[in-house]
């Protein structure tokens, strides 16, 4: 009975928040002289009107799942990892360095069953270690991870630019910072237009669910999130948990970056961790806030956010409506959800 009430309350909060956000967007659309029904139809149905639209939605959903988890896991212990974007860039860049160095610099042509796992492991470890810098600064010196992860994003961006324009790796025929293509043995393919990286995303969903609900570490993460003092009283090592959560979140973001490189772009490109003109890291934060940092809701919310992103791209192509309007809608949804959730919680406490 208690669970059903909670479910209905949550469903009502989401429903009213989405409706209000779309009402605001509809009013703005009318003020700018666009056809409201056409805008809403394009926004909500482009992903399902053709197989191509669905493919594009899945392509956006996969990296979004990784960056959302990268924010969600530290968020469960009340820390903000703003650096999923940088960790994604760093993982993808290190992967490219290893792949291009082996094939182009050293002339070592490894078979796919060795090269692909090697690149994936390098992306996971590099992303995890890169995030561990922020985790260590927080655990050792109590430095706010918001500051350190934002600064590390800049480091990762410059590192990518340095590698993509380095004479050892850059493509001499490209003006934009783009590297030479990775060897074919280090790239993944598609089935019916769906990238193979979807299997890694499914595995990560299962992994995170198992981690949070079935392991001691998951219990410790949830205990710290509920009450830090009580968790420490019962012997949970707070600093160790910070380091582990940041490493896992960075590893997931690094894996997401690696998969974008070896499956989608097949080379290192400046901006590979962006979609519709914005960072996957930012969308990951928005998506995580929508589900209140609940890891089980991440895949669903990531897919729905991707539906809006694909619809936004279609609006720009067909009706010349800037994608920023959809970003406003996404931000409003998050804002309304947070406000209504807080209002319900306060009302519950008063009762």
The stretches of 5 or more residues where confidence is low (pLDDT under 50) are none
Q: What is the residue-mean pLDDT, rounded to a whole number?
A: 89
The share of residues in extended strands comes to: under 5%
How many E-type strands?
4
Q: What structural class results from the helix and strand content?
A: mainly alpha
**Overall spatial form:** globular
Description:
There is one protein chain. With 351 residues, the protein is mostly helical. Helices cover 75% and strands 2% of the residues. It has 13 helices and four strands. It has a two-stranded antiparallel ribbon with strand order 1-2. Helix 2 crosses helix 3, helix 4 runs parallel beside helix 6 and helix 4 (84-105) crosses helix 10. The protein starts with a helix and ends with a helix.
List keywords for this structure.
351 residues; globular; two-stranded antiparallel ribbon; single chain; 2% strand; mainly alpha; 13 helices; 4 strands
């Amino acid at each position: 009975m208690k669970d059903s009430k909670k479910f209905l309350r949550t469903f009502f909060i989401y429903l009213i928040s989405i409706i209000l956000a779309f009402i605001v967007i509809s009013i703005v659309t009318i003020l700018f002289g666009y056809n409201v029904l056409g805008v809403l139809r394009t926004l909500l149905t482009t992903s399902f009107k053709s197989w191509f639209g669905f493919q594009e939605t899945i392509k956006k959903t996969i990296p979004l799942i990784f960056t959302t988890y990268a924010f969600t896991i530290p968020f469960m212990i009340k820390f903000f990892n703003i650096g999923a974007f940088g960790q994604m860039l760093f993982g993808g860049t290190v992967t490219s360095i290893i792949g291009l160095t082996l094939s182009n610099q050293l002339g070592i042509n490894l078979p796919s069953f060795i090269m692909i796992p090697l690149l994936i492991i390098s992306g996971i470890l590099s992303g995890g270690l890169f995030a561990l810098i922020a985790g260590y600064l927080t655990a050792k010196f109590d430095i706010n991870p918001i500051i350190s992860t934002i600064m590390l994003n800049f480091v990762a961006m410059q590192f990518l630019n340095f590698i993509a324009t380095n004479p050892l790796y850059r493509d001499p025929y490209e003006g934009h910072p783009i590297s030479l293509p990775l060897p074919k043995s280090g790239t993944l393919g598609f089935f019916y237009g769906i990238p193979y990286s979807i299997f890694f995303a499914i595995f990560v969903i299962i992994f995170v669910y198992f981690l949070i609900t079935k392991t001691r570490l998951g219990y410790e993460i949830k205990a710290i999130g509920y009450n830090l003092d009580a968790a420490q009283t019962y012997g949970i090592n707070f600093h160790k948990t910070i380091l582990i959560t940041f490493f896992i979140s960075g590893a997931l973001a690094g894996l997401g970056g690696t998969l974008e490189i070896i499956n989608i772009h097949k080379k290192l490109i400046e901006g590979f961790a962006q979609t519709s003109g914005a960072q996957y890291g930012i969308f990951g934060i928005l998506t995580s806030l929508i589900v209140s940092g609940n890891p089980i809701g991440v895949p669903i919310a990531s897919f729905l956010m991707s539906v809006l992103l694909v619809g936004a791209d279609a609006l720009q192509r067909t009706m010349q409506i800037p994608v920023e309007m959809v970003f406003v809608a996404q931000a409003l949804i998050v804002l309304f959800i947070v406000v209504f959730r807080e209002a319900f919680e306060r009302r519950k406490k008063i009762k």
